[in-house]
Design goal:
CATH topology: Ribosomal Protein S5, domain 2
Strand content: 15-25%
Distance between the termini: 40 Å
CATH class: Alpha Beta
Number of domains: 1
CATH architecture: 2-Layer Sandwich
Structural class: alpha+beta
Order of helices and strands: HEEEHEH
Number of helices: 3
Largest sheet: 4 strands, mixed
Number of strands: 4
Shape: globular
Strand order of the largest sheet: 1-2-4-3
Length: about 120
């Protein structure tokens, strides 16, 4: 059986990368998250879009924060083919994320991918 996790190459892990995406990226608001999205042409040789997740202590206790991170990573893993391969995203959880569930997080991910595809269609 093939591993279905999110490989490290597709995760944003360094603080500098988080700050770069947050300062240069376009802001998108979805139900439980603020999402920063930036196009990085140097990523084209990598296998797909990359993801970073920030969940602060304001959202809840560690168990809740970790659950939200897992939900976002899983939704991204399932929805990754719909994102362009040069996209870098940082998902910042709003306080309302603690009251949400996986289905809502997945719906947010789908909504964002549709928004980005629509915007990409208008740009060409």
């Amino acid at each position: 059986m093939r591993a279905q996790g999110l490989p490290p190459a597709l995760r944003i892990r360094r603080r500098l990368d988080f700050l770069r995406v947050q300062s240069q990226g376009a802001k998108h608001h979805v139900r439980h998250f603020l999402v920063f999205v930036v196009r990085n042409p140097t990523r084209l040789e990598l296998p797909g879009a990359s993801l970073g997740v920030t969940v602060t202590r304001k959202v809840g206790i560690a168990v809740v924060r970790n659950r939200i991170r897992r939900w976002v990573r899983e939704a991204f893993r399932r929805e990754r083919p719909s994102f362009a391969s040069d996209v870098e995203m940082v998902w910042v959880a709003k306080r309302t994320a603690a009251a949400g569930n996986y289905a809502e997080v997945y719906a947010d991910m789908q909504q964002l991918s549709q928004r980005l595809r629509a915007r990409e269609g208008r740009a060409t």
